[in-house]
Amino acid sequence: MTGSNPDKKLTEDERDRPKKSKKKQKKEDAWRPDGPRDPFAMLDSLPEKKQQELQKALHLFYLGQSLPRNMQQAKKHTYRFWDTQPVPKLGDIVTTHGPIAQGEASVRMEAYSLPQGFSWDTLDLSNPAALKELCTLLNENFMEEDDNTYRFNFSQEYLQWALQPPNWLPQWNCAVRVQTNKKLVGFVAAVPADIRIYETEKRMVHVKFLCVHKKLRLKRMAPVLIRELTRRVNQQGLCHAVYTAGIVLPSPLSSCSYWHRPLNPRKLVEVSYPGLRLKMSLQRALKLNRLPEATKTPGLRPMTKADVGQIHSLLQTNLSKFHLSPILSTQEVEHWLLPQEDVIDTYVVEGHDGKLTDVVSFYGVSSTVLNHVVHTGLKEAYLLHIACTATDPADLMEDTLVLAKSKGFDIFCALDVMDNMSFLEKLKFSISDKSLHYYLYNWMCPNMSPDKVGLVLPN
């Protein structure tokens, strides 16, 4: 070829490949690594539609490949991290009680290493800006449904309630940030709790809100978060923890089921609420789930601060019946049960003599409904405590459903723990396909059935 440069001869493939516009080539070049980059810059350079496709693919891969949802899947799974931790192995039959590993004489002082480009932080939840950041991280990345149709919408007030009980410690709000722009991309927290396990009382922590940004879920950051939180807890002389998860890890102490009671069936059908089994027409569902217009229990009223002492006695008597239960102080009863709008509701039954005979409480969690033409949000109520000495639990619970509906909740959720099975079916709750598994860290004891669990842990 006359005048051609032999060093620039095109291959046959290159000749056949269509030429790209400069704009398109520039966009592709932005995706090519050309040295250390902000971990998010590469994804953010892609078109929005492509970002959504990748996020959904990563999310589904994360759920499908890494998180077994039942024991059958768990038996085929390799737990690279949990096999190194002081927890019972799957399939172990435990008959003894006690710690799995003794506390170390010296606790590691330096933080665990993070992947390049990230750094540790301790979130100051008294700082409104930090609290807002945490809301954003959790609301965009925490436990989103598999089909990306719902995600939690935690309020700042809810997170303060969940993460700041009496004796909480700021250093147990363990966070990960991107070094370049300080973006919050990982979080896990612990709050102190006194727990009764069979006949043993232990000071431990409740681990909650483990969350990693969707774009980082394949970087195995969750195990590093857990290790670092464990180190920080160990520094305070504690080496045991209780936690729950919707996935199977080594090894569940108890496995419980969620039960759902529709309060607004029409809306639940319209948004295709996950796990709800309404095998009937809408009109039939509306009729079946109809509730009374008003409550029936005499003396039923909202809790006040003056009720804390009597409620404490009621709960401690009731909770002592179970193999796994919290040991609550009066300060903790006040924190966890005193009503806060859109966070926690508690009602008591007061007798003619002024003595409280019954108590029931539920907390509320809002969710965002994605990509729906009519509905943008959903309100779910979760049963926290119910203790009855004079009122039939089914009657008190029916009144609770009436009250929850009047407050705008769309569905009422309860676990089959404690004595709840005495009223769930009677009040037309239906079992969902979602399970919640209870775990203890560094403690072994025999497994227990859901009705022996007296502990509900709000996330």
TrEMBL record:
Domain Glycylpeptide N-tetradecanoyltransferase N-terminal per the UniProt entry, residue ranges: 105-256
EC number: 2.3.1.97
The organism's place on the tree of life at top rank: Eukaryota
SUPFAM superfamilies: Acyl-CoA N-acyltransferases (Nat)
Keywords on record: Acyltransferase, Cytoplasm, Membrane, Phosphoprotein, Transferase
Gene Ontology terms: cellular component: cytosol; membrane
Endpoints of the signal sequence: none
General function of this protein: Adds a myristoyl group to the N-terminal glycine residue of certain cellular proteins.
Name under which the protein is recorded: Glycylpeptide N-tetradecanoyltransferase
